[in-house]
Amino acid sequence: MFSLQFNQVDFVILINKQNEIFSSWLGLMYIVHIFAYYAIFMTKNYINRIRVVLAEKNIANKSLAEKMKKSPTTVSRWCNNEMQPSLETLVEIASQLDVDVRELINPTK
Question: Were both Cys, which of 21, 79, 83, 97 would link to 51 (CB 3.0–4.6 Å)?
Protein backbone atom coordinates (compact mmCIF):
# COMPACT_ATOMS: atom_id res chain seq x y z
CA MET A 1 0.00 0.00 0.00
CA PHE A 2 1.17 3.49 -0.85
CA SER A 3 -0.35 6.45 0.99
CA LEU A 4 -0.05 10.15 0.24
CA GLN A 5 -1.46 13.17 1.99
CA PHE A 6 -2.48 16.10 -0.19
CA ASN A 7 -4.19 19.16 1.29
CA GLN A 8 -5.40 17.27 4.35
CA VAL A 9 -6.91 14.45 2.30
CA ASP A 10 -5.37 11.01 2.27
CA PHE A 11 -5.07 9.13 -1.01
CA VAL A 12 -4.37 5.46 -0.62
CA ILE A 13 -3.25 3.46 -3.62
CA LEU A 14 -3.11 -0.28 -3.27
CA ILE A 15 -0.20 -1.96 -5.00
CA ASN A 16 -0.02 -5.71 -5.54
CA LYS A 17 3.04 -7.77 -4.63
CA GLN A 18 4.76 -7.24 -7.98
CA ASN A 19 4.30 -3.45 -7.81
CA GLU A 20 2.60 -3.68 -11.19
CA ILE A 21 0.91 -0.31 -10.92
CA PHE A 22 4.31 1.42 -10.90
CA SER A 23 5.84 -0.89 -13.49
CA SER A 24 3.93 0.72 -16.34
CA TRP A 25 3.39 4.21 -17.64
CA LEU A 26 -0.32 3.56 -17.45
CA GLY A 27 -0.11 3.18 -13.68
CA LEU A 28 1.92 6.34 -13.31
CA MET A 29 -0.50 8.26 -15.53
CA TYR A 30 -3.39 6.95 -13.42
CA ILE A 31 -1.82 8.40 -10.27
CA VAL A 32 -1.06 11.73 -11.99
CA HIS A 33 -4.67 11.87 -13.22
CA ILE A 34 -6.01 11.40 -9.68
CA PHE A 35 -3.91 14.27 -8.33
CA ALA A 36 -4.69 16.55 -11.28
CA TYR A 37 -8.42 15.97 -10.86
CA TYR A 38 -8.19 16.63 -7.14
CA ALA A 39 -6.17 19.83 -7.64
CA ILE A 40 -8.68 21.18 -10.16
CA PHE A 41 -11.68 20.22 -8.04
CA MET A 42 -10.33 21.63 -4.78
CA THR A 43 -9.07 24.92 -6.22
CA LYS A 44 -12.35 25.87 -7.88
CA ASN A 45 -13.56 29.24 -6.62
CA TYR A 46 -17.19 29.28 -5.64
CA ILE A 47 -17.79 32.98 -6.19
CA ASN A 48 -21.55 33.08 -6.50
CA ARG A 49 -24.39 31.48 -4.55
CA ILE A 50 -26.95 31.41 -7.35
CA ARG A 51 -27.48 27.66 -7.03
CA VAL A 52 -28.00 27.94 -3.27
CA VAL A 53 -30.52 30.78 -3.58
CA LEU A 54 -32.42 28.93 -6.32
CA ALA A 55 -32.64 25.87 -4.06
CA GLU A 56 -33.77 27.95 -1.09
CA LYS A 57 -36.54 29.48 -3.21
CA ASN A 58 -37.37 26.15 -4.88
CA ILE A 59 -36.82 27.60 -8.36
CA ALA A 60 -35.37 25.58 -11.23
CA ASN A 61 -32.46 26.79 -13.37
CA LYS A 62 -34.70 26.51 -16.42
CA SER A 63 -37.28 28.83 -14.88
CA LEU A 64 -34.66 31.49 -14.18
CA ALA A 65 -33.31 31.10 -17.72
CA GLU A 66 -36.80 31.67 -19.16
CA LYS A 67 -37.44 34.73 -16.97
CA MET A 68 -34.12 36.29 -17.98
CA LYS A 69 -34.30 35.20 -21.62
CA LYS A 70 -30.98 33.41 -21.28
CA SER A 71 -29.90 29.96 -22.38
CA PRO A 72 -30.41 27.20 -19.77
CA THR A 73 -26.77 26.28 -20.40
CA THR A 74 -25.65 29.77 -19.41
CA VAL A 75 -27.65 29.67 -16.18
CA SER A 76 -26.29 26.20 -15.44
CA ARG A 77 -22.73 27.49 -15.87
CA TRP A 78 -23.46 30.34 -13.45
CA CYS A 79 -24.92 27.87 -10.93
CA ASN A 80 -21.88 25.60 -11.24
CA ASN A 81 -19.49 28.58 -11.01
CA GLU A 82 -18.00 27.60 -14.36
CA MET A 83 -18.49 31.22 -15.43
CA GLN A 84 -19.73 34.34 -13.68
CA PRO A 85 -22.50 36.71 -14.71
CA SER A 86 -21.68 40.38 -15.19
CA LEU A 87 -22.57 42.77 -12.38
CA GLU A 88 -25.55 44.04 -14.36
CA THR A 89 -26.77 40.48 -14.86
CA LEU A 90 -26.21 39.69 -11.19
CA VAL A 91 -28.43 42.64 -10.26
CA GLU A 92 -31.07 41.36 -12.70
CA ILE A 93 -30.86 37.86 -11.18
CA ALA A 94 -31.33 39.34 -7.71
CA SER A 95 -34.37 41.22 -8.94
CA GLN A 96 -35.87 38.10 -10.53
CA LEU A 97 -35.27 36.09 -7.35
CA ASP A 98 -36.42 38.93 -5.08
CA VAL A 99 -33.24 38.93 -2.99
CA ASP A 100 -30.53 41.43 -2.17
CA VAL A 101 -27.66 41.14 -4.66
CA ARG A 102 -25.28 40.49 -1.74
CA GLU A 103 -27.04 37.18 -1.09
CA LEU A 104 -25.84 35.96 -4.49
CA ILE A 105 -22.13 36.41 -3.72
CA ASN A 106 -20.02 34.34 -1.34
CA PRO A 107 -18.32 36.50 1.29
CA THR A 108 -14.55 36.80 1.02
CA LYS A 109 -13.92 36.97 4.77
Answer: 79
